[in-house]
Amino acid sequence: RIPLLIDTDPGVDDALALLMAFRSPNHRLLGLCVTAGNVGLTHTVANALKLCEVAGIEVPVYPGCDRPLVFPAEDASYVHGRDGFGDVGYQPARRAAEAEHAALAIVREADAHAGNLLLVTLGPLTNLALALRLDPELPRKVGRLVVMGGAVTGKGNTSIAAEFNVAFDPEAAAVVFDGFPDIEVVDWEAVLGHGFRHADVNRWLAADTPEARFYDAISRKTRAWSEGKRGEYWHSADALAMLAALHPEHVLEKERHFLHVETQGVHTRGATVVDWQDRTGRPAQADILLRADQAAFEARIRQALGLPD
Ligand code: BDR
Ligand code: CA
């Protein structure tokens, strides 16, 4: 089984992605590295532990960075709730997090599984940037790196030009995109092309499984928010990234180009500028997902929620 390490900021859509990973028979989940992002670190760590408990999964949870590398950032509690899990007031998990920092855990696991590790990031890239500074050999050791982040045609979900995970910590994203020669990118634009009807999602979440019940509860507010803002279709950014990570065979179209992260600008801080025409001559490091198999995506989400095929 492929060793899998996930860096995440749960977060409602992180939770769905994690449930997908928990159910994958072909992967061995080594642990969850956690960062601040959607909400503060205390909440994202508590949410990760709780989700494991709900799903009956016992993997180590490593707390990481509680803020971006350089500048203060704004969270996304207006989408995910003040606690990041829809403010349903769940009973905290019984288990505690590890003492080891997430960045150190990334370095250690990449060493232990050199060449084979599948590393997936579902949140800001702060922990990974730090890990890269701790171990400059990291890119050689990580087998595949899949990043949910960016807005490759410049249509951001957080600012005019920037997607949340990059906008939260542009310096960290710049470190990662400058340092890794091969990154599979699932950006916000791709996410918008892979929505599901709210009516279908509501039907899946009515299932009587622990995962569906919990996910129904924690996602209720954000689903209502997204219906009000984006209409008929519901999107899960992190779940799409997880599909691409766990099932590369379901990625139907992608393009590889050089990608630069802007750290300055009146409107462009956190923008991901893609050299679509290969004008810069810079090595193309970003493998950008354009289209995935929507039926397979639906099947994997249903499986993650414990629904029958
Ligand atoms: C990303 O931002 C977060 O709010 C989501 O969890 C996802 O990782 C989408 O832009
Ligand atoms: Ca996330």
What does this structure look like?
There is one protein chain. By secondary structure, this protein is an alpha/beta fold. It has 13 helices and 12 strands. Helix 2 links the parallel strand 2 (27-34) and strand 3. Helix 1 (12-22) packs parallel to helix 12. The model has no long low-confidence stretch (mean pLDDT 97). The structure holds beta-D-ribofuranose and calcium ion. Calcium ion binds next to loops. Residues 4-298 form the Inosine/uridine-preferring nucleoside hydrolase domain. GO terms for molecular function: hydrolase activity, hydrolyzing N-glycosyl compounds. This is Inosine-uridine preferring nucleoside hydrolase.
Brief overview, please?
This protein is an alpha/beta fold. It contains 13 helices and twelve strands. The strands form three sheets. An eight-stranded mixed beta sheet has the order 3-2-1-4-5-6-12-9, sandwiched between helices. It has a two-stranded antiparallel sheet with strand order 7-8.
- What percentage of residues falls in helices of 4 or more residues? 25-40%
Secondary structure tally: strands: 12
Structural category: alpha/beta
Largest sheet: 8 strands, mixed
Quote the beta fraction: 15-25%
Run of helices and strands: EHEHEHHEHHEHHEHEHHEHEEEEH
Summarize model confidence as the mean pLDDT.
Answer: 97
Bound compounds, please?
beta-D-ribofuranose, calcium ion
Q: Ranges with pLDDT <50 over ≥5 residues?
A: none
Which value, in Å, is the CA radius of gyration? Answer: 18 Å
Shape: globular
Cα end-to-end separation: 23 Å
The spatial strand order of the largest sheet comes to 3-2-1-4-5-6-12-9
Q: Note the total helix count.
A: 13
